[in-house]
Automatic annotation (TrEMBL):
Protein name: Thiol:disulfide interchange protein DsbD
Domain (Thioredoxin) ranges: 339-470
Organism expressing this protein natively: Pseudomonas oryzihabitans
Major place of residence: membrane
GO biological process assignments: cell redox homeostasis; cytochrome complex assembly
Domain of life: Bacteria
InterPro entries the record matches: Cyt_c_assmbl_TM_dom (IPR003834), DsbD_gamma (IPR035671), DsbDN (IPR028250), DsbDN_sf (IPR036929), Thioredoxin-like_sf (IPR036249), Thioredoxin_domain (IPR013766)
PROSITE patterns: THIOREDOXIN_2 (PS51352)
Length: 475
């Protein structure tokens, strides 16, 4: 919802906003009031930066929670779980008092988490200095990373084991065994050493998280995310210290199933990386093959008497197999959206729209294209931006949208390389990256109230486009 608010030039102020959330059936939350500061010189970008910062902060909270849950899940993998009783015995050193045991467990877990946090912070700084967000999107990087995740997936399936070199692993284990257990200092040293010893077991998800952190260039957020991962991995030990050996989970077939589930997720990550390089129908067919393979592995076509739990797995396998077949049919028809595998292929008019859209990557060239006596639509785009492709497929390829864009000069500002000049251009506009759609009038002035940031559906885009046309006509 957009509410136009006229402001005097170069005058700031405060806006007091009161809002209340309500459900469709009448349940309402308590009213909330917020005071927004509006700067005088550049009101629009400042407001945008404040809102975007709030959204980014909320996003990092979600990612930190996800990292904690991921660390908790990694504890129950077959190569980490057997270490839990051993580490418990070494760290606690037979101490029976719950208070003392809890202190020792915290002394072990916190340094381990801090070791991971240091790794995340370094990756955030490293990614920011080298602009890895763009450099890691080229084929010569995406393909090796995809192969790496494929290798990790095969390791999860038990085809081979990933370990540190024997000499290095033996040296670390020797240092760990020589550390006195039962003391706070000894537990802390063990925590740091264990982050090195168990790293090959968790290298696959850890590599994925580090790759994401490098793309955000946020050393603080990256450090907090890896710290949460370490805390998640150490939570079971804290519970063991607080409740004794009765809380130790037992090994069994479910651990193998969890390892296989991690393997499937890693295969999905590899395919997600390659999806940016593959034609849409081929990528859809690959998703179908993955889903069908998992369905067959779950026994979708094994029509024999089974226990109730295996029947549920078989039903899930049948659903995945059906989805895989649907993806194959959709790929043969030219579809490319995994969420709508039977959706229609892009219309021929989409090609015409692409031919009528100029692609620029230089901010100066973009500035020279504005103010030429015709309204301009600027699509901020990057090849590595998944949301940009969704916007293109769901909005710009829509015939109704194409009909309404005939009055605009269409420019795609390509930020695939993410150069310094492009990032400075984003900063001047108060944007944090693609996707975004900007509307300029015939004099080269942006209709800020109509700006689109992030994903949007065709109906909402048409409404925003109509608003932009009214603003342009009033100038």
């Amino acid at each position: 919802m957009d509410i136009p608010l006229p402001l005097a030039p170069n005058r700031g102020g405060q806006i007091k906003v009161t809002y209340q959330g309500c459900a469709d059936r009448g349940l309402c939350y308590p009213p909330e009031t917020r005071v927004l500061e509006i700067a005088g010189a550049t009101p629009s970008p400042t407001a945008t930066q404040g809102a975007s910062s709030s959204v980014a902060e909320q996003g990092w909270r979600t990612r930190i929670l996800f990292a904690f849950l991921a660390g908790l899940g990694l504890t129950f993998t077959p190569c980490v779980l057997p270490m839990l009783p051993i580490v418990s015995a070494v760290v606690l050193a037979g101490k029976a008092r719950p208070g003392r045991g809890l202190l020792l467990a915290l002394a072990y877990v916190v340094p381990m988490a801090l070791s991971f946090a240091a790794l995340g912070a370094l990756m955030g700084v490293f990614g920011a200095s080298l602009n890895l967000q763009a450099q890691l999107q080229s084929p010569w990087v995406l393909i090796p990373f995809a192969m790496l995740f494929l290798l990790f997936a095969l390791a999860m399936f038990g085809l081979f084991e990933l370990r540190l070199p024997g000499a290095l692993r033996d040296r670390l284990e020797h240092l760990a065994s020589g550390t006195r257990g039962g003391s706070v200092g000894g537990a802390a040293v063990l925590g740091v050493l264990s982050s090195l010893i168990v790293s090959p077991c968790v290298s696959a998800p850890l590599a994925g998280l580090l790759l994401y952190i490098s793309s955000t260039a946020d050393w603080l957020g990256g450090g907090l995310a890896l710290f949460a991962l370490g805390l998640g991995m150490g939570t079971p030990l804290i519970l063991v210290a607080a409740g004794g050996g009765a809380l130790l989970p037992r090994s069994g077939a479910w651990l193998v199933g969890m390892r296989n589930a991690f393997g499937v997720l890693l295969l999905a990550v590899a395919l997600w990386l390659l999806e940016r390089l593959l034609p849409g129908p081929l990528a859809l067919a690959a998703w179908g093959l993955l889903a069908a393979g998992v369905g067959l592995f779950l026994g979708a076509l094994e029509f024999v008497p089974k226990p109730p739990r295996q029947r549920l797995l078989q039903l899930a396998g049948l659903a995945l197999l059906l989805y895989g077949v649907t993806c194959g049919i959709g790929a043969l028809r030219g579809a490319s959206d995994p969420l709508r595998p039977l959706g229609e292929a892009p219309a021929p008019s989409a090609t015409a729209r692409q031919e009528g859209m100029r692609t620029l990557s230089d901010p100066q060239a973009l500035a020279a294209s504005l103010g030429q006596g015709r309204p301009v639509l600027v699509d901020v785009y990057a090849d590595w931006c998944i949301s940009c492709k969704l916007l293109e497929r769901e909005v710009f390829d829509n015939p109704a949208v194409q009909a309404q864009l005939r009055d605009f000069t269409l420019i795609r500002f390509d930020m695939t390389q993410s150069t310094r000049e492009q990032r400075q251009w984003l900063e001047r506009l108060g944007l944090f990256g693609p996707p975004a759609v900007l509307f300029y009038d015939r004099h080269g002035k942006e209709g800020y109230a109509s700006r689109i940031v992030g994903e949007i559906d065709a109906a909402a885009f048409l409404a925003r486009l109509d608003q932009a046309k009214r603003l342009i006509a009033s100038d």
